[in-house]
Structure formats: C-alpha cells, structure tokens
UniProtKB/TrEMBL annotation:
One of its GO terms (molecular function) is carbohydrate binding. Pathway: Protein modification; protein glycosylation. It is a single-pass type II membrane protein. One of its GO terms (biological process) is protein O-linked glycosylation. The gene is GALNT13. The chain crosses the membrane at residues 9-28. This is polypeptide N-acetylgalactosaminyltransferase. InterPro entries: GalNAc-T (IPR045885), Glyco_trans_2-like (IPR001173), Nucleotide-diphossugar_trans (IPR029044).
Amino acid sequence: MRRFVYCKVVLTTSLVWVLVDVFLLLYFSECNKCDDRKDHSLLPALRAVMSRAHEGPGEMGKAVVIAKDEQEKMKELFKINQFNLMASDMIALNRSLPDVRLDGCKTKVYADDLPDTSIVIVFHNEAWSTLLRTVHSVINRSPRHLLQEILLVDDASERDFLGKKLENYARTLEVPVRVLRMEQRTGLIRARLRGAAATRGQVITFLDAHCECTVGWLEPLLARIKEDRRSVVCPIIDVISDETFEYMAGSDMTYGGFNWKLNFRWYPVPQREMDRRKGDRTLPLRTPTMAGGLFSIDRTYFDEIGTYDPGMDIWGGENLEMSFRIWQCGGSLEIITCSHVGHVFRKATPYSFPGGTGQVINKNNRRLAEVWMDGFKDFFYIISPGTLPRFRLNLLSLSGWECIWGGNKCVWMIINA
Ligand SMILES: [Mn+2]
C-alpha cells in the first residue's frame, strides 16, 4: 500500500517537471536573442502552449464538418461570401495552425533591427469571422516591435457589423488598428492607395481580408527587404478551403506567370531558377508575376515606382501591372519560401462589378498592355480581339506613362496620350 502511494507521488512530481521543461523549451525556442526580447517572447510562448490545448472546430487547421441537419442552412449562408460562412463562424478567431515551413526555415535567425511594417487590408462586405481571423493571426504571429499598425480600408461595405461595431472592436486590440472608409465603391486599387498613403511603417504589407498568417511569416519578408529594398516579396500562399476551412500548405515549386489573355497563372518553377539558388529551396524565389493579394514592399520604393495605376477599377489586372512595373523599374519580385500565409480561395467572386465584370477587367488589361508591354501587346489583342475596337475609343482617356532613369531611381512622368 505504501509503495503504491510512493509511486503516485513520484509519478505526479515527474509529470509536473516534464510540463515545466516543456514550457521552458517553448519559451527559449521562441526567442533568438533572449536578453532584450524576453517581454516579446513570453506571450507567444504562452499562446503556443494554450493553443495546443485547443480542441475546438478547425484547430490546427483541420477541416470543419457540418452536421447533416445543418447542411441546408450552410448552403444558404455559403451564398453570402461564396465560402462556408457557417464553418468560418464556428472556428476561433485565433485558431491554431500547423507549422508548414521547410525544415531549413525553422532554424533561420534574423537580424534584430528589421524594418517595421504597416499592414493594409482592403475589404468589401467581408464576413466578420474571416476579417477578424486575418487581423488576429497578424497580431498573434508577428513580433510586436515589427508591427507598426493595421489599417483596415473599407471599400463602401453595406453590412452593419462592419460599421461602428468594427471600430469599437478594433479599439480593444493590443496593436493600433484603424478603420478607413472610402466614400463610395472604388475597387481594390484605389482603396489600397488610400491605405498606403496613411501608413507609417517602413514597409507596407498588403493582405487580403480572408487570410491567416502562420508562425514566422513576417520576419523573412522584412529581412529580404532590409537586404535589398527593391525586392518586393510575397509569402507562399497556402490554401484555406472555401468548403471546410481546412488549412493546406502551398507549394514552393510553383511561381507566377500569365497567359496572353493576361490572366494570372501558376507554373512549375523552372530548373534554371533552382540552379540559380543552388538547389536551396529556402532561398528567395524570383517570380515573373504575383497573385497580388499578399505582398510586402518598401514604402519609399513603392512611391519611386509610381505606386499602382490609379485608373484601374474594382479588381483585375492590377497584380500583373504591379509585377511588370517592378521588373521594369529595376526591382525584383520574389516569393519568400520561408513565409507562409493562408488565403481562402473561392470558385466564384461574391463581389459586384459596377459597369460589368468583363468591361472592368478588359479596361484594366488594356491599360496594363498599353503601358508595359510595348510590341508584346499585340499578342493580347490577337488573343482577345473583342478588346481592340473599344480600346481605340478609350485611348483618349488613358494617360501614357514614361519611365526615365535618373541614377538608380525610376522617375515617373505622366504624358497625355
Ligand atoms: Mn481573396
């Protein structure tokens, strides 16, 4: 009997010590330079321990299963945002996610004096749970000293909860979060420009309104910009299922391209780019174009290359426009394979396009072709002949741009066409 009691005491004390060890391990593995970073790293470590205890829906990026008798309601709710809103609303705003990075990324050490960043998130009628999960994932998984602020730019949403309720909620967060409002629907580009103009950080990071940042997402992006301020960097975009909100790691073996209709497309990374990096998949991957929703850019470099084309409406073409602009203005566009951010990919767009979807995208693509593609624009006009006559009429309203090299800077002149 006595032996049994001894055993119990020994077992419980060792269990306590194992737990203490686990905590200490987590605490110290979170911080690279522990002397001055203790206050920063205690919180994420605690959160990490707590999130491991989570057993709720969608934790660790798992798929959410909706009960049979809820399926009808689920289908109704799906139509609002073109993703499974019921599933999203069931998942915690600070849900845990797996660490999907390559092993070589987990041990990289970054400088202490990385530039800080402002986060700009444009939204239009976004769901509460996806928007706020984006915000919480930024706050929870970014070192506080690298996060200047989060700017939420509302492109004239019509939902009540995105009004005062959002502003009040933003005030309760531990990072400055400001809500800016566009007076009327203007589209992604001009709303992003509004946000960018209000930023105070050294780097601007644009995110979509239905993202989730994973552990260690920010440091490698900022480290690359510190190394070369003319590199514009994207994370690997992981897939958050629109049906189940399951988190699935994206591949570092695809990069951005386009077809002659000027649609963005993913293509396999060519051997020459693997060779340039000497086979090290953790190094920045040069990509011809980007998907456009998520990237970081040095704020002064963004100004130097003339920001976005403010004449583009609503959505479409702006990602290729920015990609062509960067490469042609002496910069480089790179996927930072150690940085992972999830994005809810949808099969259909929930957004309205004032003026008609086709019209808006054609107009944006014509501007893209005329400004950046020189003789190659003919491929676009041959493939999409419908765009040609209307373009001729519109040419009068298009301001041509000329890029003049002065020293290392790309200076923008607006010339009237
Ligand atoms: Mn999106």
